[in-house]
């Protein structure tokens, strides 16, 4: 009886995996198939000879490498700044007292419920007045600025769960608040920071609408836009498009694999949800 | 007063930069967006914008397309929120079972859709559900499983086009719910279940009476995020149906984007977005309140 149950559960999980991985398998098969003029029929996908030609072509075409590098630069700096700034802000909200703190925080949380898409127009006008349209610093500033509230909200709960008694040893040694922050709160929150890094990386790497609006010149474009262009220019080159997509997915997967150990430990069940 | 100033001085090194960025790129744009909704806004020359009074909002309530878009947005929430939640929690419960091996492997694989790019995944589903025998799903249903006689034109009809959009949303989001519940389940002491087992409680009863109440703060967080995500969904529709056929699969969010960036009617688009914000707030209000309240220690 017990054995049957175990087999059944594993069977369910395997069926689930087919549903999850099936579409990816289809994508990989299509990217390895050469006839690009129509959507390759399922029979053809199974039987046709496989080649990496689409990958070589996608990588070499349309400044794809340049866009790839742009995406890495933009995502890297966004990640660095947003992790630094949001952990500082979360520390401020978690362990400092100042008038209006909770009101300000509630205002922050409120903004999370307002549709983000319409902010683009005023955001654009601000960048314009700073003369930062079509520059990496402008795009990075915008990404960092618009993501801070969510990350601060997320981290504050973790910081508040760290027992204050831990601070005492630092205070006895004569350390200030920054020392406490650096040597207690940051190291103990690494799982939360790792989780945040994954979310933040993926959100930035994948971001489409803002990048399309802010980056004007072709040389400054990021990957999601390059993919969209690929679709436009090689409408019926399905294999090429999927090869490009797979290349674009690789960095996210790598980042996930690197940080996933931390990800496991981050317990989001409570604490992080306090307002 | 002195004290307050001192407190501000202490906290400012940690707060000022982030606060300035949030003001510049979130709070100000939001206020400006609300402001714009009262104007016939001219993007090229903002200073020539004419005041519109409440006419943009009146338009929201008379525009027949809003009815369609509102229906689709609500359906999106009604279908995909429970869909993702149930799929996610079932996966978490299965993986968490004592007898299941390779827990890390399962969690990793089921999380892959979550980390994939929305644009890529949306196009992928668009091709999977292509018309005729070329589409993989049609091929599976007609030629392999013989479940239907003729291939379906998935994206040609409102109902099936919406179905594809829902499927991709659930497919991509279930893993996120799973990961959060897995973490939460691990933190529940086993002794509680053992006690229930001794008392003769069936697993289903243990789930309803032990697990769910203990993870209620997480559930509130998850539901808020899922509702928020469903109502703010964009790329699925933008890339898969483009609102078609005949604008019948537009969501409020894609419709307002079209008003803004195709017709350049930013005033009207902002008015829709203000209404959308009110809608999200109303839908998540009950859950928002319960977030602060129940904090269970064990």
Explain how this protein is built.
The complex is a heterodimer of chains A (275) and B (298). With 275 residues, chain A is an all-alpha fold. Chain A has helices spanning 2-31, 42-47, 53-60, 64-95, 101-111, 120-129, 136-161, 165-172, 177-188, 190-205, 209-214, 223-233, 238-265. The longest helix of chain A has 32 residues, at 64-95. Chain A is globular. The relative contact order of chain A is 0.15. Mean pLDDT of chain A is 84; it is low at 266-275. Chain B has 298 residues and is mainly α. Chain B is 73% helix and 1% strand. Chain B has helices spanning 2-36, 55-62, 64-96, 103-115, 118-128, 136-144, 158-186, 190-198, 203-214, 216-231, 235-240, 252-261, 266-293, and strands at 39-40, 50-51. Chain B has a two-stranded antiparallel sheet. In chain B, helix 5 packs across helix 7 (158-186), helix 7 runs antiparallel to helix 10 and helix 10 (216-231) runs antiparallel to helix 13. Chain B starts with a helix and ends in a 5-residue tail after the last helix. In chain B, 45% of the residues are buried. The model of chain B is unreliable at 293-298 (pLDDT under 50). Chains A and B meet through helix 1, helix 4, helix 5, helix 6 and helix 7 of A and helix 1, helix 3, helix 4, helix 5 and helix 6 of B. Chain B: Residues 70-287 form the ABC transmembrane type-1 domain. Chain B: One of its GO terms (cellular component) is plasma membrane.
